[in-house]
Design goal:
By secondary structure, the protein is of the alpha+beta class. The chain is built from four helices and seven strands.
């Protein structure tokens, strides 16, 4: 049986400063959790990105909060997704261009217009064996979530229309 392990909400701004603070404020308003900063991993001079410098922010949601936020984000997209939004491991990602598309959120002049990305990670029961600290075990390939299984799960449980 497939379940949602976590939902990650991400805003990449590319720079530190005021824009990053606005992104943090937006994520806290959207999810009700305190966001963390994501750091640059390698040097990209044309974008002014250096290793260790904050370039974005993210929040990880689990359990009921994750499902509630995923429903809200899917409402912003009218429950329509494409098959390319799913990867081969069954995980699901999409972007929302403006936070005012999300039902129940109005424009805030302090934040401005920002978009964000939503990634849902799925798993089958028993994956804990692979991730626990003591006596980790091997998960066979037949136990992995496939793209088709994930599509079917989201169609059935979230009333998603695949285009």
């Amino acid at each position: 049986m497939i379940s949602i392990e976590k939902v990650t909400v991400n805003i990449g701004v590319g720079t530190t400063g005021e824009k990053l603070e606005k992104a943090k404020k937006l994520l806290e308003k959207l999810t009700g959790q305190k966001p963390i900063e994501t750091l640059g991993k390698k040097r990209i001079p044309t974008w002014n990105v250096r290793p260790g410098v904050a370039i974005g922010t993210k929040v990880t949601l689990r359990r009921k909060k994750a499902i509630d936020f995923l429903n809200l984000a899917l409402d912003a997209r009218d429950r329509k997704v494409t098959e390319s939004d799913f990867d081969n491991m069954g995980n699901f990602s999409f972007g929302i261009h403006e936070y005012i598309d999300v039902p129940g959120f109005k424009y805030d002049p302090d934040i401005g217009i920002l978009g964000f990305d939503v990634s849902a990670t799925v798993q089958k029961w028993g994956y804990r064996v692979k991730k626990r600290k003591r006596k980790t075990g091997h998960i066979p390939k037949k136990h992995n979530v496939t793209k088709a299984e994930s599509l079917e799960y989201f169609k059935k449980n979230f009333n998603v229309v695949v285009e």
